[in-house]
Fold this protein.
Amino acid sequence: MKNRITIKNIFSPSLFLIFLLTVFVAPALKAQEDVQQNQLKFGRLLRLVDGYYVDSVNVNELTEKAIVHLLSELDPHSVYLSKDEVEKMNEPLVGNFEGIGITFNIFKDTLLVTTTVAGGPSEKVGLRAGDRIVEVDNKNIAGIGLKNSDVFDMLRGDKGTQVDLKVFRKNEPALLDFSIIRDKIPINSLDASYMINKTTGYIKLNKFSATTTEEFVTAMKGLKKEKIQNLILDLRGNGGGYLKTAIEISEQFLADKQLVIYTSGINEPRKDYNASSAGEFKSGNLVVLVDEGSASSSEIVSGAIQDWDRGVIIGRRTFGKGLVQKPYYLTDGSMVRLTTAHYYTPSGRCIQKPYEEGVDAYKKESLTRLTKGEMFNADSIHFTDSLKYETLINGRTVFGGGGVMPDIFIPLDTSIHYAYINRLRRNNIIYNFALDFIDKNRENIKVKYPAFKDFEAKFVVTDDLVAQITENGVKDGIELNAESLEFSRNDMKKEVKSLIARDLYSRDDFYKIYYSDDEAIIQALKVIENQKDYNKLLVSQLQ
């Protein structure tokens, strides 16, 4: 009898293994061969250029340019960083650097200490705000055209090393000598934390660094002592940071095992990141403030809170960065940050905005939003039905396809009258005036207003002070615009008062004044302190 081919014969274990190898392994081997062949091809090109090109060339520079161009063809966030850039990039996210612990400004061509870091090396030896550093390690630095980068080079250094300073201090007959031992200096990712009123607290984060969770938890514990019931979390302008930190901040608000985010890519299987039982604000009314500058980790947090109906999002549509980059070091200490996956909010939204039209168009997308009117009117924003998703508790409609769309829209105020005050800001006219005013009146203000509450209630930035600012502007080539001045006069006064408060009292006090009439915060307070309105915003429109 002739052999009969059966289904069982066809799918025998050996044949099935050959099938799997053909389907899955063969393409992978082909891809590896392509990489090796092109690696050899590029290496030969470099050798030819180095050995035969008509002029001398820098092979290192050519290689770096080739890498940069290659990555730019992939997506807007895969980038190359030189060894020096890697070191500088890591500082703000690691959360510290090594130096003497001051904030400064180059004022009238002199290095002016504006604050000393609490507990830092400079504070310990008695350096004060208002001091002018005129010599570093016996080298004059006053009146020489000093730049910020020069200050970093001179004052930063390895922990344990010494730097010697000569300092001019008002009312002192001679220069003061300071020997300071450098140490680790924290870089704060939390700008402000305070109670706006008896029940509502406010926290502002500027990035998601290695120390952000610790800073946030410490701040929340302080607010709990003041009986916080509601929280406004301000992520406006926060460009993101570590994924791990975004998950840790999200779980401060979400229930145990709720999904925060998941990542998925062609070469990376889906990976879920869930909240833990730990957290400082698992219940209580929550509002998150966002805008077009809120990106990456900020979108992870706001997206998770929105998807789980945990809080209300207020502001403008976020940036739209939903690509995950992993760092890969190259042989010389440089690095490639390569996009390996997309991240998705708990409802399945990918909030990465499109980049098919190239890097230039991608970078100009915010300007495109502006010209289309999206920054001014929520009705200018249109989503297709394919981008509709539902929140996971109440089934509210939310959208993917490019950023997190807030529940309450706050338009951008771009009155033409702001052009004048913005020009004064860009030229440091307002800031330098505040520095000069503080320098001349520091002791008098502290005596008259020993506590911030006294200063906040009674100190007035007069019209005469505003006139001095505008005169300084004219001296710097900025023509006075009387109509615009009247429009922005109160903003200018508020800004000067805020800067004085930050220098003499604390960073929190700057924001207490500067955001005293902030439209998004006012709207947040209206919603957060009216339980009926708050609950209504978190209920599906279909119910």
